[in-house]
Structure formats: C-alpha cells, structure tokens
Amino acid sequence: MQSTGNKTGTEIRQGVMNASVDLDDMVYNEELSEFRSACRCGGEYLITESQLEAEKNNMGAGGRVKGEMFSAPIVYGSVAIPFGPNDPVPKDESHTHKWCVFLRGANGEDLSPIIRKVTFKLHDSFVPPSRTVDAPPFEVHESGWGEFEILIKISFVDSQEKPMTLFHHLQLYPKEDNGIDPDMDSPRQTILSEHYDELVINEPYEEFLEPLRRYRLQVQAMKTKTPPLNFSPEVEANEIKRYYTINDKVMAELEKVKNRLAKIEADKRKLEADIKVLENESLT
After folding, report:
1. Of 151, 101, 277, residue with least CA distance to 269
2. Which segment of 5-9, 20-24, 110-114, 184-188 scores lowest on mean pLDDT?
C-alpha cells in the first residue's frame, strides 16, 4: 500500500471525504472529478487533502455559480410553400417547394447574446448537408420535394456549456386531418410547422453570467410588447391531440390487418385439410 507523507492510504481517503463535505461543489464538478481520477493509482489517492482542497479553490474561481438559473423561450420549425408559376425555376426541376427551417426567440428576442451558432443537419442529399449559422437570423433556406427530419444543434456563447440538440420534421404538405388530401391538387398554401421550447441554463459558469444577464434585461424590456406569435399553448395542445388521433388511426388499421391475416391463415389451414382429405380419398 502506497502512502503520502506520514499518512496511510485509508487516512488520505478519509481526509478527502472530509474535504468533500459539499458534494455539489466537488463530486458533481466535472473538471474536479477528472482531476481526482487522474490522481488515483492502484485504488489510492496520491495527493494530500490540503492539495485537493487547494485544487478545489482554484477551480471554484471560474466554476459554476450556485443559485443562478436562466430560461430562454424559443420557437423552432419550418415554413414551406409550393413553387408558383411566377417563381424562378428551381435549380432541380424535381423540387416542388421552397422552404425555410429556423430557430428564433419565442417573443422575437435577439438570441445572439447567449447563442454562438446554430447548426442545421439536413438530409444527406443536400450539399453540404450541415449548415452552420453564426448570427441571427438563425435559419436556412432551401428547396426540395420530400419531407425529412432536421437536427438542430445549438452552441452557446460559453463553450463550456454543452450544446443543446433539437429535432424537427420538415413539413411540406397539408396534414390529412386538415380536411385536405395531400395527394390531390389543392390551392397554393403556406405550410407552417413550429414548436415551443426553452433553453434552460442552470448554474452557469461565471464567464456566461454577463451575456445571460444582458439577455434577461432584453426580455424584461420586451414584456410590455405584444409578440406576433403563430405559436401558443393551444397550438401545442392541438398538435399533441393530432398525434394521438393519428396513433389511434394507425392502431385501428393494424388491428384490421391482423384480423385479415388471421382469416387468411384460417382459410389456408382449411384448404390444406381439404386437400389431405381429397388425397386420402384418391388413394382408396
């Protein structure tokens, strides 16, 4: 068993535990955990408790700020419209729609104080498939004919914060439950699909405090304004209800298919039995 100074490994571990009374400050601190792991050898800590405490104090200088939490409401989604006869000919003649995928403040706030860049990962058929936007408006304009899922990666001004990832399904055609058959010709209409979410920064790093507070002041200054939102909690509730309705329809269709398959299997067994009877009769 290795030791440091006049202390045994057991005593050192006990000292570390005593120095780690505040688990929020130490054990859950990612950088400190990495530091402690690097200082282990054969199950023993090779540093004294005073050295560990000094490291804790150094890391606290630029660490997370306890008790602070910031929330930034956002709206993300897409808007699409079919090409009209007066529109320029698309670069690919198979393209039927022009569309835009976007991320913005829910009330029109400027997100640049807290967001460094937004990366939109499109379908692999687009060149290039990944589009990075490092200044507002955070959006990508394209054209195409098919619907697909878009990955939206949000990178914060403070690179110490982990990026946030969202997913959005690009919608080009009307939904069936709108009373319009998407397979039939319909009047040219704009298809808007957007969702509400919140960017929650809990206990940010000290370096991130000033940008977050600047953003908060901007939000407070805009509270008296009426935001021109297409989104509302009612819209989100209707969207959830629509998903449940679609799920019920799919389950009902699956049940019908199961019943048809069961009937086919029963008819098959009956035919096989009839064939055996006929074969036996022919042998006699």
Report:
1. 277
2. 20-24
d(CA 130, CA 150): 10
Long-range contacts of 159-167 (CB under 8 A, 24+ apart): 159/116, 160/205, 160/207, 160/208, 161/201, 161/204, 161/205, 161/208, 164/199, 166/76, 166/103, 166/197
Q: How far apart are CA 2 and CA 25, in angstroms?
A: 28
Strands (E), the chain: 40-41, 44-45, 69-82, 97-105, 115-121, 130-133, 138-144, 149-156, 164-169, 191-202
**Residue 174 burial by Cβ neighbours in a 10 Å radius (0-12, 13-18, 19+):** middle
Residue 56 contacts residue 90 (beta carbons within 8 Å): no
- Rounded CA-CA distance 164/150 in Å is 14
Q: Which of 156, 84, 147 is nearest to 116 (CA)?
A: 156
pTM above 0.85, yes or no: no
Pick from 208, 174, 167: which is nearest to 69 by CA? Answer: 208
The residues pairing with 75 across neighbouring beta strands, listed in sequence order, are 104, 196
HSE at residue 56, side-chain half, CA atoms within 13 A, is 19
Pairwise CA distance, residues 188 & 48, whole Å: 73
Residue of 126, 130, 128, 132 lying closest to 144 (CA atoms): 126
- Written as one letter, the residue type at 179 is G
* Cis status, amide bond into 136, omega within 30 of 0: no
The residue among 225, 242, 255, 217 whose CA lies nearest residue 72 is 217
